[in-house]
Amino acid sequence: MLKNKVTEILSAMSSEEIKRFGEFVTSPYFNKNTNIQKLFNELKKYYPSFEDKKLTNEYLYKKSVSPKGYNQQVIRNLNSGLVKLLKDFLAVEYFIESEIDKTIAMLYKLGEKKISCIFSTDLKNLENRILNTKDITQSTLMDLYRMETERLNFLIQTDRQEEAAQFILKQSDYIILHFIVHLSNAQNNLKINEDTFNKKFDINLVREFINNTNLDKIMDYLTDNKFEFSSFAKIHYYKMMCSLYPENEDYYFKLKSFLSGNIPYMNKNEIYSIITAIEVYCTTKISKGEMRFYNELFDIYKLAVNYGTFVKGAPPQITAIKFRNIYICALRVGEIEWAENFVKIHQKYLSTEGKILSELAYSQFDIEKGNYDRAIERLNNINTDLYYVKKDIRRFIIQIHYERGHLESSLSALSSFRQYINNNTRLIPGTKDNYIKFINVMTNLTKLKSSPDRKKLQNLKERVKNDSLPSREWILEKISELE
Fold it and tell me: What is the pTM for the complete model shown?
């Protein structure tokens, strides 16, 4: 297999892109080196794998330069030239697809050449196009800022500075609003990294800026003066405040209300970002024992599913973790039928690797219904390298052994699980600690099932109530059965 920068790029391109690049590389405007054309024409015969044994630099030299001899530097230069053309092609492809970027670049050149009649018309058309879209994103604000920048440049270049004042303000408004939205996204992403990956940020300019800026007053100013996009900025402001001050639930309920009222007018990627932030907020509350937030989280998941904003990309996909979180939340609030329908309808959006989650889900549904034999069969047939699926499989098998009264099997599985958790280097400390707690609690509960002790059960119950660990509600239910 020939492996270099050229084949890496070509392998990632679609067959339609390969066809268009063939037209691109033969255009004298972009490429005048006929040997590069020959090199590409030979390489495309082996697209997309480039695995033929004869495909070597020596072979390509003979096909693209000369049937005699071999010059390594020449083939290196041809490869470098082809890589540059491929990168130029990808940039041009993006430019063609992005009408707004193309128009702004064109305005820059028109302004530079002071072509007033076309500039004014095209600027107005662009402004209408951006402002009339219902698909508002953070990029919308940046596009408007860039547009106003070109307007101001044009006014200065044509000696019309006296007309610039109102546009200086508009340009500044758009970049400040864009910054507020970016600040919100940055804070949310930092929070996810802190909670999920145990990252620490001792020097954190994002948080320092937020803590030393009166953003409440700025939001009031936006509302009182009826600024364009003030609702969009407020949604992101509440998202940011939820991340920083989770104890203030007023921010959360305002965010939820704003989202529900504006979701039909928002871009799906923006909605996905906000729903992820709400998801983080609710799970943080749940981890601190506030179980009512399971219902809040389920409401948000239902909203996401109804509007199709739980998937991303083209073709649309759902991450395995989000898929799992949605159906598990439904189970937690007793919506088994909803969870089953969700898995049945939406498992098609999982990646090939993630499809194993649907089997895990069906095993959980069997457990909920008491179909333990079927659940065990499903769990034993799951073959995966996904560590979070492996730990779920072990946890469910332990619970099934307990439900069936197979206490020795349960204790043996707990001992094996402890060893697995201790040896797993991929688990972050917080997650590892929670699973060790689960193992300790389940070991005590399993022993108490064969020899109940009211005082010990009460102590175990208080311990579980005040802690965050997997299967917490199920464990509390099992303790209550023994009391």
Answer: 0.76
